[in-house]
Amino acid sequence: MVQNRLSDDSAVILMLCWSVRKGRGAPKPLTTSEWGELARQIQNSHLQRPGALLTAKGGDFRRLRLSELMIARIEQLLSTGGQLSMQLDTWKSAGIWVRTRADPDYPRRLKVQLRDLAPPALSGFGDVSLLEGRTVGLHIASDARDPGRFARFAAPAFSSGDFTLVAPSNRGFEGELLVNALREFGRVVVIGDPLNNLSDTLNRRAALEGRLCVVSPSSPASASVPMAERIRLIAAMSDRILLYPGDTSKAADRALFLHVRPGSDPSVFLWLPRGERQEATPLLRQGAAPLPDGAYDVHGLERWLQGVYDGSPSAASIDGEAAQSRRPPDLYAVAMDFLANRPAVLTADDVASQLLVTKVQARAWLERAVLEGRVARTKRKGAYTMATQPQLFSS
């Protein structure tokens, strides 16, 4: 259920930072930096909390040392409460939630990484807690070589691990990869327009299953989010970023990955098949690292993605002999071995309870096993049987 009941603090943030009144004469919302400065002034004043502005008088604003123009602007914005309330009801009925920096479930990662430059408010649908787990950012340059082939190739690897794929859009070839990952029961966070994305059946189903979150730093009624802002948010939301670069002479958007927080996490890794590393020299000089040679097949990429988190000494050692003994176990293979001695007919609920994993993960393993011929579907909806017991296939 979508919860859009606002505290006074959140109501003030939304009125000041989102434009709910349109047309000539409408007050201009505060920018992120303007709100950050005002929030500090409020915190250090007698008001202490943003919600106190709802009952503040002219003298209270002047004690914040604001200009007369800023005071007039803030008072105009605070007069939009009725329109905001109607908008919130409309968004809630559509399944869209709203979070502000004053809310306890605002993504902690954004506050930690961006501090005062974290978006004052977010809108979206789906499970925002996906951002609190392990995340891998992805960006495919618009001029990358054969991006469609990469999108189809990489989807199984991005849907097989215990992490969430974070992408700056769901259009073009990034969108193709995200759709493939969702169909394979992967977990995805997308920076995008919540209203437009809600119309897609796959998106709605994945959101209900807790595998998709579409999030925007703007009001659902606002224009689309600029790519530069999307890239900045992806860098803040991701533990690691995989970048498929193109023509480096047109690398303005891709270089943002490397300049958001120079010299600090997240690490940026480049998808550079043999023969293409020379063209990416400028990005490599700025601190990006190429994926190791062993990561350019599906299983190698899957191992690399797992190795980022599971104690491997470095990404480059994934395809080296020294790393063999330190690779994390193949959890899927362990699951299949375990299930070989379980009851003949299984459901995702059975697998989840026996292996202590989520139902989503259990279903993903079972569907993968069907494709590999290890498991077969039965006539009973949602039930599977191990392929080592052919006498049960007709049940």
Using the 3D structure, state the CATH architecture of the largest domain: 3-Layer(aba) Sandwich
Report how far apart the termini are. 38 Å
Q: Which fold name is given in CATH as the topology of the largest domain?
A: Rossmann fold
- Uncertain runs are 249-255, 258-263, 308-329, 388-395
Shape: globular
Mean pLDDT: 75
Count of distinct structural domains: 3
The total of beta strands comes to 12
Tell me, what is the CATH class of the largest domain? Alpha Beta
Describe the structure.
The protein has 395 residues and is an alpha/beta fold. The chain has three domains: 1-93, no CATH class; 126-290, Rossmann fold, CATH 3.40.50; 331-392, Arc Repressor Mutant, subunit A, CATH 1.10.10.10. The chain contains 17 helices and twelve strands. A nine-stranded mixed β-sheet has the order 1-2-6-5-4-3-7-8-9, sandwiched between helices. Helix 7 (147-158) crosses helix 14 (298-307), helix 11 runs parallel beside helix 12 and helix 16 (348-355) crosses helix 17 (359-371). Residues 249-255, 258-263, 308-329 and 388-395 have low confidence and may be disordered.
Topology of this protein?
Blueprint (H helix, E strand, L loop, with lengths): L7 H10 L14 H12 L14 H6 L4 H11 L2 H14 L2 E4 L7 H7 L6 E6 L8 E6 L6 H12 L5 E4 L4 H12 L4 E4 L2 H4 L3 H8 L3 E5 L10 H11 L2 E5 L7 H8 L7 E4 L10 H5 L3 E2 L7 H10 L23 H9 L5 E3 H8 L3 H13 L3 E3 L5 E4 L9
Parallel strand pairs: 3-4, 3-7, 4-5, 5-6, 7-8, 8-9
Antiparallel strand pairs: 1-2, 2-6, 10-12, 11-12
